[in-house]
Amino acid sequence: VRAWHQELSDAQAVSEVYQRVLGRPADAAGQSYWVGRLGAGLTRAKMIASFALSPESRTRTRGQGAWTTLTLGIYGRAPGATEWGGAGVWDQVADAYLREAIGSDEVRALAS
Predict the structure, then answer these.
(1) How confident is the model at residue 85 (pLDDT cuts 50, 70, 90)?
(2) Global confidence as pTM
(3) To 5 degrees, how large is the angle CA 15–CA 17–CA 104?
């Protein structure tokens, strides 16, 4: 199993994450910043998580959309029934969900 972003260059992955998570093209400063962070060793999963938990993403995807954005960003798929948090739960458990997702066997397999 390969993550959707593994075949992309760092610049392409950053552009794709902007579109998938924030629903807009990357601005020049943001594109440069994230490509630099990836070049310095930041994993793509952590970059995606940073986007999904950003104030812009949280404002854009209130409630259910935030869960879907995070799961799509990390796994490239919609959330399963056991992962679904639903509206009103996001702010309380997003950090725990993110830690669990990044530490999961599924993400480890995608990253290898």
Answers:
(1) low
(2) 0.61
(3) 145
